[in-house]
Amino acid sequence: MPTKVSTNSAVWEHYQTLGEHYDKERPGYPISAVHEIAARALALRHSSRKVVDVGCGTGIFTRMLAGALDPSLEVFGLEPSSTMIGRAIEATKTIRAIRFVQSPAEHLPFDDRTVGVITAASAAPLFDRTLFYAEAHRILVDTGLLAILQNKRRHETGFFRSFELFLEKFVPGYRTGTCADARGGYSVANFDAELASDNRFSKVMVQKWDWPRTFTTESFEAFALSTIQLKIARAAHGNDIIINELRSILSRHCNASGTIDVTYSAELTTAVRAVQ
């Protein structure tokens, strides 16, 4: 059973109703990025064996990371949504033990200087990062690793360009290059600049991997329905208008076999807790 820590973040309530498509069609992450984090974690020379994935959702990245780590490391997945935590537990029953904890990013349920690695995959834009960075600094051991991984659509041309224009038209406040944030709006998340200006962290580094993904029109529609943006667009304009417009874009860009080739850029921002 998950441990529960109270959260008041209304933004995460969106995820209580997005679970139907979430685990099945999310694009995942390039294995090179997962292996990079695992290698960095194993190279750290400190006593803590705890690895904490914050904002873990249904555990997609948590499971990938756990599979790449040494079995001696203790892996936790933290997530404020009870629906997502339930799905994470169900999906992980037959895999290496991961302890899932219902908890917000702004209040991490660990003692001071007890965690070796903190990760956040596609979740950090939704955090109150002022509070999250303070909590990360508090629980990380000296030289402990903070790793933030974010998938970004390569939207210069093709289907993703049309999809971005669709989002700009139908999602109030959305602009290309922005992410849903903790205030319920959209903003640019500059993790590297934030961490570089925070003297509690050092050795800030950014790495990127471009990686392809092929969707069917049906699988991309299912993926889109698992996003906050589409949930908000459907509430603002009606389900039929949004689904019909999305299907029109998909039909214009799919090939003869009904598939669409796209490219994501996975961006990994890492920093270590500075020795005080």
Describe this protein with a few key phrases:
eight-stranded mixed beta sheet; 276 residues; two-stranded antiparallel ribbon; Rossmann fold; single chain; 10 helices; alpha/beta
Describe the structure.
It is a single chain. By secondary structure, this protein is an alpha/beta fold. Helices cover 37% and strands 26% of the residues. The protein has a domain of 192 residues: Vaccinia Virus protein VP39 (Rossmann fold, 3-Layer(aba) Sandwich). The chain has an eight-stranded mixed sheet with strand order 1-4-3-2-5-6-10-9, with helices on both faces. Strands 7-8 form a two-stranded antiparallel ribbon. The two termini are 37 Å apart. The N terminus is likely disordered.
Strand order of the largest sheet: 1-4-3-2-5-6-10-9
Number of contiguous helices: 10
* CATH top level label of the domain at 3-154 and 185-213 and 263-273: Alpha Beta
Name the CATH superfamily classification of the domain at 3-154 and 185-213 and 263-273: Vaccinia Virus protein VP39
* Sheet having the most strands: 8 strands, mixed
Give the strand tally: 10
Q: Radius of gyration in whole Å, from Cα? A: 19 Å
The proportion of residues in beta strands is 25-35%
The chain-level mean pLDDT equals: 89
Considering DSSP H and I runs of 4 or more, what fraction of the residues is helical? Answer: 25-40%
The structural class is alpha/beta
Q: What CATH architecture of the domain at 3-154 and 185-213 and 263-273 do you see?
A: 3-Layer(aba) Sandwich
Distance between the termini: 37 Å
